[in-house]
Amino acid sequence: MEKEQLITEINRLKKEKNAVIMAHYYQTGDIQDIADNIGDSLALAQWASKTDADIIVLCGVHFMGETAKILSPQKKVLVPDLNAGCSLADSCPADAFEAFTKAHPDHTVISYVNTTAAVKALTDVVVTSTNAKKIVEQFPKDAKIIFGPDRNLGNYINSVTGRNMLLWDGACHVHEQFSVEKLVKLKEEYPNAEILAHPECKRPLLLMADYIGSTQALLNYATNSDKKQFLVATESGILHEMQKKNPDKEFIPVPPNDSTCACNECNFMRLNTLEKLYECLKNETPEILVEESVREKAVKPILKMLEMS
Ligand code: 13P
Ligand code: SF4
C-alpha cells in the first residue's frame, strides 16, 4: 500500500475502533506524525493511565507497552512489532535482580522504567529519566537504595543528588556507543553549538554536555534556548520533533564510535513501521499481555512514581 493510503486507513481504523496511537520520540518520523500523542516514557505512562480509548497502540518498545497494560489492564494494548525489545531491559533479568535485592534486604529498590514487568514487580518505586532526580531526592540522604538497571543514569543521579545508590550493572547499547572523540571534533566545527545528552550516555560524554535530560527535557531545552545549533547525543529519532518545532535551528546527531553502522538509531525502536502499525490496528494483534499476579505487584511502584513525579 502507498504511504498516503496507509495513513488514510490508519486514521479510519483508529476512529472506527476508538483507538489511540501513542509514540515515543525514537520512532520514525512518519509514525510520530500520525500519532495522537508523542512523548517520553513518563508521558506515555501518564497518557496510558488516563485515556478513555478502548485500544492503545503503543509505538515504542515492549516495556512501554507493558507499562501501559499494567496501568490500563481493561484496555487492549498493541505494539506494532513484539520483537521491539530493549537492550537495557534485557541487561536486567528478573531472577538475577531478585537475588541482588535479596542480598541487600535493607535497601529500597528503585528501577528505571526500562525494565520488564517482572523486574518492576520486585521494585519499590519506578522512575524515568524525567523524574529520577526528583524522586531519589524525596528519600533521606543516607537512605540505602538499589538503583537498576542503568549504571550510567544511576551514576549521573548519584552525582547530582549526592547519593551513593548501589547500582545494577546494566546499560543501553545505543547510548553507550556515542563517540567522545567525534563529539570533540564536532564541537570544534560548531563552536557555538550546545551539547545535549541523554543521561543513559557514559560519564565522559555527559561531562561535555551543556544540558542533560530525558528526550522531552532535551526537546524543551532546545526549543527554549537562544542558541541556533545543537549537538544531540541520544537516539536520532528525537531530531524529527526537534527540527519540526524549531525550523530555524540546526540539530546535528552525535555519531557513534563505529561510523559504518547507524548505531545512534535504536534497532528495536525502528522495528515498528507504518505498515506494521496499519496491520496491527486492522488485526488487533500483536497484543501485550501481563499475567495478573505480576501486574498486581508491578502496578504499585508505577503508581508510586506517578504520585511522586
Ligand atoms: P526517555 O524517557 O527519556 O524518552 O527515554 C527512553 C529511552 O528508552 C531512552 O533510551
Ligand atoms: Fe532501550 Fe536503548 Fe532502545 Fe532506549 S534506545 S529503547 S534504552 S535499547
Architecture overview:
This protein has 309 residues and is α/β, with parallel strands linked by helices. The chain has 3 domains: 104 residues, NadA-like (Rossmann fold), CATH 3.40.50.10800; 97 residues, 3-Layer(aba) Sandwich (Rossmann fold); 76 residues, Rossmann fold (3-Layer(aba) Sandwich). Helix content is 44%, strand content 15%. Strand 3, helix 4 and strand 4 form a beta-alpha-beta unit. It binds 1,3-dihydroxyacetonephosphate and iron/sulfur cluster. Iron/sulfur cluster binds next to helix 5.
Helices and strands, with pairings:
Layout (H helix, E strand, L loop, with lengths): L2 H14 L2 E6 L4 H6 L2 E3 L1 H10 L4 E5 L2 H10 L4 E3 L8 H4 L3 H10 L4 E5 L4 H4 L4 E3 L4 H5 L8 E4 L2 H11 L4 E2 L12 H10 L4 E4 L5 H6 L2 E2 L2 H10 L4 E5 L4 H8 L4 E4 L20 H10 L8 H17 L1
Parallel strand pairs: 1-2, 1-3, 3-4, 5-6, 5-7, 7-8, 9-10, 9-11, 11-12
The structure holds 1,3-dihydroxyacetonephosphate and iron/sulfur cluster.
